[in-house]
Amino acid sequence: xxxxxxxxxxxxxxxxxxxxxxxxxxxxxxxxxxxxxxxxxxxxxxxxxxxxxxxxxxxxxxxxxxxxxxxxxxxxxxxxxxxxxxxxxxxxxxxxxxxxxxxxxxxxxxxxxxxxxxxxxxxxxxxxxxxxxxxxxxxxxxxxxxxxxxxxxxxxxxxxxxxxxxxxxxxxxxxxxxxxxxxxxxxxxxxxxxxxxxxxxxxxxxxxxxx
Length: 211
Fold this sequence. Notes:
By secondary structure, this protein is of the alpha+beta class. 24% of the residues lie in helices and 25% in strands. The two termini are 48 Å apart.
């Protein structure tokens, strides 16, 4: 719309100059070429060409904050697995709430409680050389870290920031893949039980997460 206003302004200015000319023949107002270059499209597929299950509005959903692993939870976690864990496939949402976020992944709500959710997201380790130890130190404040576990020969961090919440983290390339379940309500499962469910989900998705 601003470009249209500019074109109209130039055209009107040219017309006024013609009408004020004292000598010579009137000349046409200079034409302003319209740009024929289309706006770049926003990426809607993962590195394997699989389409996201929602429309991505962010040009930098994939960015230098989360490009340490090509793993994309939103396209690689099957609907069958989501149903197996009692989640609503139709509730899928991008974890990114703004452009250029570190977290790249998806969340789902539970069928038995739409306030409770599971999410899995990818974010770069900073610095990557410090690996999971660096991740644990960086997130020391406010997190209760439990003993690490091992799944299929890979180290997995286990932590919680509140009752009924559990997060497990596995390394993928120079990134961390973070799986979190948050249960709310008075009758929510214990944190120990929530961590067991997170572990089961990580075990189910780990074969698709590159090391």
